[in-house]
Amino acid sequence: MNLTFIGTGYVGLVSGVCFSEIGNQVTCVDSNQDKIKQLNRGHVPIYEPGLKELIQKNQSQGRLKFTSRLSEAVQEADIIFICVGTPPLASGEADLTYIKQAAQDIALEMNGYKIIVTKSTVPVGTNDLISSIMQQLSQHPFDVVSTPEFLREGTAVQDTLHPDRVIIGTEDERVAAKMAELHRPLSSNIMITDIRSAEMIKYASNAFLATKISFINEIANICEKVGADVTEVAAGMGQDRRIGSSFLQAGIGYGGSCFPKDTDALIQIAGNVDYEFKLLKSVVEVNKDQRFNVIAKLKHCLGDLKDKQIGIWGLAFKPNTDDVRETPAMEIMEELLQEGAIVKAYDPIAADNFRKSFRHEDLVIWSPDAKAAAAECDALCLLTDWAEFQDQDLKELQQLMKQPILIDGRNVYSREQVSQTDFQYYSIGRPDIG
Ligand code: NAD
């Protein structure tokens, strides 16, 4: 099929590339001309394992192209995917500016019947809004479908090629059949539902995952006080099939471009219909506090942080991505600087992105590698569980530091590993060592 993806960010680019990989003719459009220029020069603007190779392969085989010229892209397409951002407004509500613009842009360029698929995460009722915007601007027939995206950054290519499920929200049988045909090479688990339920499935899924994370983080905080080990607790809980073991890793909380914004948006969606989502409000609050456990642990072992040298390992909100949106590292480093600490930081991939969005960029010592970030430090804080950190030689590391203090915000190291060193080791929800 001829497909066009509007917005070539994490969702639009990965989806477009994967649909070309399964044999479709794909055009990816972005209003950011610089992004398109980069892509056409072979430079991939985001870090996502496996993506660059797939782009090269499908571009060279003539199934994938990048353009900022919307009219051609719309006119050649049978199906148009809207994959633009829906960032949070100050109120927490999703900002639909880019969605409305994309709907207008498509409507003005249409030359015949099109299926419009909303992949962006949008509040319930937004697909109806897209329909009404388009109806006002175009004489051509169209159908709007909600197909929310569930890919995870860091494993986005694999998630897109092998999704757990595909949700298709439409009330039209022929459109449902066409969308099912398009997705069948990726998954046999396709659920057809109505548009509003499809929109809600996305928010409810993210809210539930965020709830699991905040739940285990609160259990971890209690474990610390009663002398239990949260990894043991989570392992025991996870064996119950009703609970499951995923999303029960205690740590410094979730970040990224989806969970924080989608939980806030769902609270607002509920609020707009006079429903107070008390549980989700607590999930958000717990998550906001959880990251500061790192600071509390540092103060517990170092006292006043003024002039203490603190190493930071990991700036991305999770491993295998260069996305630093809402990353816990941002607030932790701001707080450390405010306390007068000297901060050294390193991330294998996300440092450049982090530096662009960190307002105290000039106050941080940016280290070229993990060892340099730890050298001469009074304490080291691991904030992102990149594999590179798990593989470090802790004995060698302790020699480099002024004081061997390790705050493991992601519970990366085992007791056995740390016990063989002189590290004072503090993790989340597990007994301290040293
Ligand atoms: P992003 O910010 O990385 O990319 C959005 C892109 O859209 C940008 O490149 C921007 O230039 C472009 N754009 C904006 N308006 C445009 C227009 N009118 N025409 C052409 N291009 C336009 O965003 P993202 O992370 O890919 O997320 C997109 C949507 O998907 C959001 O609603 C998000 O919540 C949802 N989502 C994201 C993820 C994720 O992991 N990032 C996962 C699932 C769902």
UniProtKB/TrEMBL annotation:
Q: Which residues bind NAD(+)?
A: D30, K35, T86, T121, E153, K261, R325
Q: What is its EC number?
A: 1.1.1.22
Which residues are noted in the entry as substrate-binding? F150, L151, R152, E153, K202, F247, L248, Q249, A250, G251, G255, K318
Has keyword Oxidoreductase?
yes
Which pathway does this polypeptide act in?
Nucleotide-sugar biosynthesis; UDP-alpha-D-glucuronate biosynthesis; UDP-alpha-D-glucuronate from UDP-alpha-D-glucose: step 1/1
Q: What range(s) does the UDP-glucose/GDP-mannose dehydrogenase C-terminal domain occupy?
A: 311-415
User: One biological-process term from Gene Ontology?
Assistant: polysaccharide biosynthetic process
Which residues carry out catalysis? Answer: C258
Enzyme class of the recorded protein, top EC level: oxidoreductase
Q: Which Pfam families match?
A: UDPG_MGDP_dh, UDPG_MGDP_dh_C, UDPG_MGDP_dh_N
The molecular function terms in GO held by this entry are: NAD binding; UDP-glucose 6-dehydrogenase activity
Carries keyword Translocase? no
Q: Which UniProt keywords apply?
A: NAD, Oxidoreductase
Q: Which reaction(s) are listed as its catalytic activity?
A: UDP-alpha-D-glucose + 2 NAD(+) + H2O = UDP-alpha-D-glucuronate + 2 NADH + 3 H(+)
Alphabetized SMART domains for the sequence: UDPG_MGDP_dh_C (SM00984)
- Top-level taxon: Bacteria
Protein name, as recorded: UDP-glucose 6-dehydrogenase
What lineage is this protein's organism placed in? Bacteria, Bacillati, Bacillota, Bacilli, Bacillales
